[in-house]
Each structure stands twice: as structure tokens, then as C-alpha cells.
Amino acid sequence: MFESISKRLRESRKIVFVTGAGISQESGIPTFRGKDGLWRSNDVMKLATIDAFNDNPKLVWEWYNERRKNVFSAEPNLGHKAITELEKYSKVVVLTQNIDGLHQKAGSSQVLELHGSIVKIKCTVCNYKGETFTEFLDIPPLCACGNILRPEVVWFGEGLPQDLWQEAIVHANSCDVMVIAGTSLVVSPANTLPIYAKQNNAILVEINPDETIMTSNMDLSIRSTSAIALPELVSIFKQ
Ligand code: NAD
Questions:
Q1: Which protein residue has the closest C-alpha to ligand 1 atom 36?
Q2: Do residues 69 and 177 share a domain?
Q3: Which residues 6+ apart lie within 8 Å of 143 measured at CB?
Q4: Is 115 near ligand 1, meaning CB less than 6 Å away?
Q5: Residue nearest atom 39 in ligand 1 by C-alpha distance
Q6: Coil, helix or strand at residue 239
Q7: Measured from the CB, is residue 36 less than 6 Å from ligand 1?
């Protein structure tokens, strides 16, 4: 599957993974787009935006409570684990749009959560930030200051923390190989990371059962799931 680029892969000193919801699909967490994606059953634009939260925080928190339950019971799959195993052979950095923490649970040591984390919460008014692994019984949950707490995730229309984004660009711009797994590459600015990698002449590998809007820019597109393709990629390093 990877024959055409196996030499470049084996020689690579730094591999950056750009991952999205699809890499966790085989852990039982639905994607937003693609087959069986959440878009199909929910109007995510009515839920994952700051306007939706301001209009109806209870509704948005109900949705996040469900997602939190799903994430807390999920385990990393062979795709997440393969990325962790690759650390034995090369420097590996994961730039993920996911908020599920499964890369860390699989043992990846350098993960930048570009869109935040579903276990993190913050106050909408004061500076309080925290982490919680239980379901909220009273929603919307309140901060000790009396104001509403929100998930510490980046919603559609919100900017990424600038220091985190700058760090992501530095990694993208200094890798030999970028593997883009399980993302539709429609969410900005994460979808510009392959452009930074190309500035460093990195090779771009896409792993996705479906084509994406950037397929034509890839050096290699693997039409497979990440739990199948990523262990195969790691096997190249063992040859
Ligand atoms: P997306 O839903 O837009 O796209 C998912 C992509 O994954 C699609 O291109 C689909 O074809 C592909 N895919 C589906 N199953 C796959 C598999 N088994 N292996 C490999 N690829 C597979 O997701 P996105 O690009 O990450 O962007 C949407 C936003 O969704 C992000 O901001 C992210 O925070 C959020 N999100 C995160 C989670 C999570 O944390 N697990 C879940 C849903 C949505």
C-alpha cells in the first residue's frame, strides 16, 4: 500500500499527524461528516456554536453530556495505537482536531489538541478552568462565581488559542512527512496545515475511506480506515 513512499517514510526524522473525527470512528465515536456522521442526525451548526450556547445553554449541554458519556467509555483503536508505536522509530507529533483525548489515552507523548478537550470546562465569565470526568446532573452547570460553565472546546466561529496554533504551524513546517487521517479537511484553520508542510517539501499522505477536498494535493491517498492503514504504515518501519 505504501510501496511508493516507503523509503521516504523510513528515512523521515519527523512525522506530523493531522487527525480528525474519523480516526476515532472505529472507537465508536461518531464523526460530524462522512457516513453515519453526526451531521446526519443533528444540526451541528445549531449546537457547536457560541450563538447556540448563548441562545440555549441547556440544549447544548445536553448534547455535550451525551458526547462526554460516549467519549469516557471509548478506548483507543489500532489507529491511535499505531501512531504511538511509531514513536519508537521517528519523532512524532500529533495535531488533532479531536476533543476526545484518545491519542493521549493510547500513549502518544506529544499531542496538540487544536479544538480543546471535552473533559475541560471553563467559566463563561471568570477565569476558572477545570477538568471533569463525570456527567453533569444539573445543566447548565454553574461555576462557584454563579455564572454558567461551558466546555473548553473551540466552537465553529471561534478562534484557536494563538500560541497553540503558532506551535502547530512550527511542527507542520518542520516535518518530513505529514499523515492526514480521518479528517474532511473542511474546518479552518486546521485544513491549512498541509500547506505549511509542503513549504518544507514534506510528503503528504491521506488516510480516509472517502476523497477529501485536498485529495489532489496529496502525494499518496489511502482509501481505507485508519485502524487498518495506520498499523500498515508502522509496519514499514519494522522492515
Ligand atoms: P469530519 O466529521 O468533518 O470528517 C470526518 C472524516 O473522517 C470524513 O472525511 C470521513 O470520510 C473520515 N472517516 C470516517 N471514518 C473513518 C475511519 N474509520 N478512518 C479514517 N477516516 C474516516 O471531522 P473533522 O475533519 O475532524 O472536522 C470536524 C470537527 O469535528 C472537528 O472540529 C472536531 O473537533 C469535531 N469532532 C470531533 C470528534 C472527536 O473528538 N472524536 C467527533 C466528532 C467531531
A1: 21
A2: no
A3: 123, 124, 125, 126, 128, 149
A4: yes
A5: 98
A6: coil
A7: no
Q: Provide the CA 59 distance to its chain's centre, in angstroms.
A: 24
End-to-end CA distance of the chain: 14
Q: Are residues 125 and 234 in the same domain?
A: no
- Residue 207 CA to residue 215 CA, distance in Å, equals 10
The β-bridge relationship of strands 149-153 and 177-181 is unpaired
Q: What dihedral do alpha carbons 68, 73, 77, 83 form, nearest 10°?
A: 60
Q: Are the C-beta atoms of residues 68 and 135 closer than 8 Å to each other? A: yes
Range of the domain at 2: 1-28+75-115+160-239
pLDDT digit string (tens) for 21-78? Answer: 999 999 999 998 766 656 555 677 778 899 999 999 999 999 899 899 999 999 999 9
CB 27 less than 6 A from any atom of ligand 1: no
Residue 93 burial by CB count (10 A; 0-12/13-18/19+): exposed, middle or buried? buried
Global model pTM greater than 0.85? yes
